[in-house]
TrEMBL record:
Domain Phosphoribosyl-AMP cyclohydrolase: 25-98
Subcellular location, principal: cytoplasm
Protein species of origin: Olivibacter oleidegradans
Top EC category: hydrolase
InterPro entries reported for this sequence: His_synth_HisIE (IPR023019), HisE (IPR008179), PRib-ATP_PPHydrolase-like (IPR021130), PRib_AMP_CycHydrolase_dom (IPR002496), PRib_AMP_CycHydrolase_sf (IPR038019)
Record bears the keyword Cytoplasm: yes
UniProt-listed Enzyme Commission number(s): 3.5.4.19, 3.6.1.31
Protein's recorded name: Histidine biosynthesis bifunctional protein HisIE
Subcellular location: Cytoplasm
């Protein structure tokens, strides 16, 4: 149960992209904003400057769709995982926090590949590869794996980085073709680690 009394009726809400795990913003909620967020499945804050409830995206259309929320151990902070519908920051940036790049870009890439599956585009490499079928996608993963090994043994570090990137990209396409999200691989690796 959230304790709104500690912060004079407000609790901080850390907003995180549910897929990339990138921290997008920090806002504050009162009890009414929290209830509205749960009811409408869109994140609503209490704006301290406007002194009213404020649903993120109410003017821009860049809503934050609620995926899941958890309360910290002191019951006075929320971690809210969202599906962002457009940029989160008022500047047009994906996140309100300035970073050189999203360290979890691999999950963002998975999202891009998923979009290519859902919204096919003839000029997209993903769709051209997909049109050739799962055998070709699997073959491409094998080819990239061999090229990665060769680069590791005989070529420069940059060649190895490029070949590793190709391997991971094609593996993501194969995972999507098999309808297995990357998080399932992470969960499996975590289970193995704990054995």
């Amino acid at each position: 149960m959230l304790d709104f009394n500690k912060g004079a009726g407000l609790v901080p809400a850390v907003i995180q992209d549910y897929q990339t795990l990138e921290v997008l913003m920090l806002g504050y909620m009162n009890e009414e904003a929290w209830e509205k967020t749960q009811k409408e499945q869109r994140v609503t804050f209490f704006s301290r400057t406007k002194n009213r409830l404020w649903t993120k995206g109410e003017e821009s259309g860049n809503y934050l769709e609620l995926v899941e929320a958890s309360v910290d151990c002191d019951n006075d902070t929320l971690l809210i995982k969202v599906n962002p519908k457009g940029p989160t920051c008022h500047t047009g940036s994906r996140s309100c926090f300035k970073t050189d790049f999203n360290q979890n870009f691999i999950f963002q890439l998975e999202k891009i590949i998923d979009d290519r599956f859902i919204n096919p585009n003839e000029s997209s490499y993903v769709n051209k590869l997909r049109d050739k079928g799962i055998n070709k996608i699997a073959q491409k993963v094998g080819e990239e794996a061999i090229e990665t090994v060769i680069a590791a043994l005989k070529e420069s570090d940059m060649d190895f980085i490029n070949e590793s990137s190709d391997l991971i990209f094609h593996l993501l396409v194969l995972l999507r073709e098999k309808n297995i999200p990357l998080v399932r691989i992470a969960e499996n690796l975590a289970k193995r680690h704990h054995k």
